[in-house]
Amino acid sequence: PPSAAANLRPGAEQKVVFITARVHPGETPSSFVCQGIIDFLVSQHPIAKVLRDHLVFKIAPMLNPDGVYLGNYRCSLMGFDLNRHWANPSPWAHPTLHGVKQLIIEMYNNPKINLEFYIDIHAHSTMMNGFMYGNIFEDEERFQRQAVFPKLLCQNAEDFSYSSTSFNRDAVKAGTGRRFLGGLLNDTSYCYTLEVSFYSYVLGGPTSAVPYTEEAYMKLGRNVARTFLDYYRLNSLVERPLVPTPKTR
């Protein structure tokens, strides 16, 4: 059997990327993006192997299963918009948030674990493309560092827009995962909301909108996963194919 990755051996330091999706049941594209991330990470792709050796991915693909089951658009079975209850989730009324938050706090308090990224995946009903929301910090250097991942993602994914990416601290969003965990975790953790359009992305001019397909959503997920390779500068570790690939004319 293949030996366990070095980062999974007992006592090893772990860099953790925590990903959640589908807190709003009507935002089905978020599930396809998450599916793309998962499928890529468990694949035999050389990049996926390097990522598994260097990072630990924790993924909660559906934070609102009862809302999804009922066909709700935004709320859970009990009528809560779960993405406004991160500050004080009830184990009874918001059990998925409570469980995920406990796990994140446990990891945060573990000196052997560096919780480096938290990404919550959503879909957007009025904007095009994929884009991110990040947090605003007083510390200019921390603010600049937070922009690195979306800038790298922009280079990997043709449908991801850095110009639509924004950093805010709107009071309405205070109970969201990104905002709450951004305030809880320290400056070595980056918290983002990844949004993807319900309908289209733009290539080239403003008139050339391309409708999203399930495959295009999953491709965005694959590109999110690949971006960690660039972020952690692991490119040199990827096994190259032995046969040179023919150059296209």
UniProtKB/TrEMBL annotation:
Q: Give the UniProt keywords, A-Z.
A: Carboxypeptidase, Hydrolase, Protease
The chain positions of domain Peptidase M14 read 1-232
CDD domains per the UniProt record, alphabetical: M14_AGBL4_like
What this protein needs as a cofactor is: Zn(2+)
The UniProt entry, under PROSITE patterns, shows: PEPTIDASE_M14
The GO annotation for biological process reads: proteolysis
Q: Quote one Gene Ontology molecular function term.
A: zinc ion binding
Catalytic center at which residues?
A: 195
Q: Which family does it belong to?
A: Belongs to the peptidase M14 family.
Any idea what this protein is called?
CBPC6 carboxypeptidase
Q: Which organism is it from?
A: Podilymbus podiceps
